[in-house]
Amino acid sequence: MSIVLLCGVLYGVMRAAMLIFTPANHRANRLLAALIAVLALYTAPYIIGFAGYYDACPWLSFAPYNLSLAVGPLVYLYFSAMGGVPVTGQRRRPFHLLPALLQLLYYSYLFVQPLAFKNNWDTEVHRPYVEPVETLGLMASLVAYAILAWRQYRQSDAMLKEWARNMLVAVGLTVTFWLALTAAEWAWSGLSYFQRFPFYLWLAILISYLGTEGYRHGAVAFPVPAPAAIVPAAPVPGATETGNLAELGARWRATITAERWWRDPELTLATLARRLGTNTTTLSRALNDGLGVSFTETINRMRVEAVIVALSQHHDQPVLDLAMAEGFNSKASFNRAFKLYTGSTPTEYRRQGPLATQVSTSG
């Protein structure tokens, strides 16, 4: 049993370490790595327990493995990081992890106490008083943050819909399993190590899954939330005139460039309009009538320009990888756009050098 759990946990932890060093989406990847680490720590007592280490080393009791109150907040914060919609009260985000910090301080303090003190505390205080409160808090936290993560997913323009949906399903099943285990603990006045094994086996599988899929999607560019200061609250008065449309289109194009929204392969006119705080009609007119280019032309030109810059910086990286990183979702669409706006194919461009062609700016 220890080996089975250890294999799943070690694999997930290895992937979490790789996530930390993934050169993209730093905040989101580190939050997911932290979630995997917390789940791995929570599983650790059962890995060493099934192997008999608690019997051989009783001083390991109250080791600070249990940071379960961080699970819900980390799930929610990860979804907010990859969702593409800013969460209100960003400065208050660290407070989501305050209960987990209190857990860490509590177990760390007890861990360094003499064994006789720990045994007495476990019998007289921890099991009858602290553990029930901690369990109720955990259940409330898991349910509340699962709902918040779901709402964040529903409200966002997440470009990784399938991965986000699958992760929500996995988290939902875990919360259900956890609730069932807690109910069984209370109904039968505690369960043995062996009776709890299926749940910890599930956690090991979950850790492996999060590590595998999280790393697979970790390098894909997530949407970047728009700062409130650059989102107009309402359409600019007089924007129906051609001059004002041109000014509005130029300003919105600058915002797209600054926020690098072209990197979202699922970006649509409707999605972009929501991010800019306008509607599709006004946005379409500002681009078509004001700038003389369509939404598709605007975004594809930005992507091609970004690929050209990347080609000059990453000489050995495959062209298609660079294209995918800048928002193109297929080789055919990339080749077609690159040829249209530069007059040469990507392979010809790289062979001839950066001065051979340049992106056309004409309509």
3D structure, described in words:
With 363 residues, the chain is mainly alpha-helical. It folds into two domains: 2-218; 228-352, Orthogonal Bundle (Arc Repressor Mutant, subunit A). 69% of the residues lie in helices and 0% in strands. The chain has helices spanning 2-20, 26-50, 53-56, 71-82, 98-111, 115-155, 161-187, 193-218, 242-259, 269-276, 280-291, 295-313, 319-325, 331-342, 346-352. Helix 1 (2-20) packs parallel to helix 8, helix 2 runs antiparallel to helix 4 (71-82) and helix 7 (161-187) packs antiparallel against helix 8. The longest helix is centred in the middle third of the chain and has 41 residues, at 115-155. The chain is elongated. The termini are far apart.
**Largest sheet, strands/sense/barrel:** none
What low-confidence regions span 5 or more consecutive residues with pLDDT below 50?
85-90, 224-241
User: What is the helix/strand order?
Assistant: HHHHHHHHHHHHHHH
| Radius of gyration based on Cα positions | 26 Å
Number of strands: 0
The rough form would be described as: elongated
Work out the helix count: 15
Distance between the termini: 66 Å
Helix fraction?
Answer: 55-70%
Write down the oligomeric state.
single chain
Provide the structure class: mainly alpha
Mean pLDDT: 82
What share of residues are in beta strands? under 5%
- Overall structural domain count: 2
